TrEMBL record:
Entry-linked Pfam families: Ribosomal_L27A
BP-aspect Gene Ontology terms: translation
Family per record: Belongs to the universal ribosomal protein uL15 family.
Domain of life, per lineage: Eukaryota
Segments of skewed composition (Gly residues): 88-100
Entry keyword set: Ribonucleoprotein, Ribosomal protein, Signal
Protein's organism: Ditylum brightwellii
Name the UniProt record assigns to this protein: Large ribosomal subunit protein uL15/eL18 domain-containing protein
Amino acid sequence: MMLCSRSLLLAAVMVSTAAAFSSSFTPSAQRVSTVCSTSNLSMKIFDWKRREADESALNDVDNTEFTFDNLRPAPGSRKRKNRKGRGISAGQGATCGFGMRGQKARAGRPTRPGFEGGQQPLYRRLPKFVGRPTGPGHTKTEYNIIKLDELNGAAAGETVNFDTLFEAGAITKSKLDIHKVVVGREDFTAKDITVQAHGFTKAARAAIEANGGTCQILKRTTGEVIEA
């Protein structure tokens, strides 16, 4: 008899608890649904002068003529820059985001380009290939310079190039295999000569042709004449 009364009492408590839980949960669910249905998401306009401005006329594209005095950026597309060092409320005051001293807080660039904190940098980890330099300016073509005043010892009608000048003692040996003729400091007096090189400046070519000479361009790989 006592066991039966306990089971009945427990069942009554469970029924009352379920009813109270359902009655307390229903209004909150209704409130959530009503809030979601009435909420209207909008973009925040950072320009405080335009938050309350009436721009309905500008939004009417069909009936608005845009000129330089009424063009404006779209609301929310532009944001004011952070004013650093103007108080702690901005989040960038005092140290301006650079922290409490240290290398990165100093003026100027803290480290050189390519520095990786002391570990082996990328440009030293990559393999190096012979004949393919990787430094700055590696695409620049370097010529051995031959000046016009070094050709003054050539006789009329003679063909002059680097080999003949070196044999005559007019120039010294070169580490580079391609040669370019440029204007020297002294006057060019040789006449009616044929000059062979891998490149000529405009002034040097004009001076040679003015004295009745001829300029011939040599191929870099074989040394053959490819242009006269």
